[in-house]
Amino acid sequence: MSDPSSQRAALEELLKARDEGSADFLLSVVIPCMNEEEVLAETVKRLVSVLDSAELRFELILVDDGSTDSTPRLLREIREKEQRVRVIRLSRNFGHQVAITAGLEHARGDATVIIDAPFDEQIVRYRNPARYWGLPVDGPPSCRCLDFDA
Question: Hey, which CATH number is domain 4-132, 3.90.550.10, 3.40.50.300, 3.40.1390.10, 3.40.50.880?
């Protein structure tokens, strides 16, 4: 698990980028899920905590890619408790990239971040998102690029 102080420090850069833009800034976080029953609740809890501490307005888009365990039930429970969570359930397993694409198509944010469950330091390992703010990437014009380290 990552250190909360490092999460806070990294998210301050994102806050700076947000503050330079619209007061209505919304961050979309897309999380593809496939049989994630063991990590799903903790992933959402930690991610909500990090984003709340950064005072970001956000939505979590959890995409169930045809899970065969209790992931669908857990997603329903999480959605009932957390109004900023949106759930997309695919009818069968279409694969990671299709799940990501489904999440991106439903994202309403000014910026979109894609992470995998379990939550790790991916969201805080970007270098300088302000440098990339608002630059379109290949694909739909609504997509924007945040640069992530490997």
Answer: 3.90.550.10
User: CA 11 from chain center: how many Å?
Assistant: 13
Cβ–Cβ under 8 Å, residues 99 and 34: yes
8 A C-beta contact, residue 105 and residue 30: no
Q: Work out the number of other CB atoms within 10 angstroms of the CB of residue 139.
A: 9
Can you tell me the distance from the alpha carbon of 80 to that of 75, in angstroms, rounded to the nearest whole number?
9
Say what the pTM is.
0.69
**How many other C-beta atoms can be found within 10 angstroms of the C-beta atom of residue 1?**
10
Tell me the pLDDT tens digit for each residue of 85-111: 999 999 999 999 999 999 999 999 888
Q: How many CB atoms lie within 10 A of CB 44?
A: 24
How far apart (Å, rounded) are the C-alpha atoms in residues 24 and 27?
A: 10
Long-range contacts of 76-85 (CB under 8 A, 24+ apart): 78/40, 78/41, 78/44, 82/44, 82/48, 84/48, 84/58, 84/59, 84/60, 85/44, 85/59, 85/60
Cα-Cα-Cα-Cα dihedral sign, residues 83, 142, 47, 103: positive
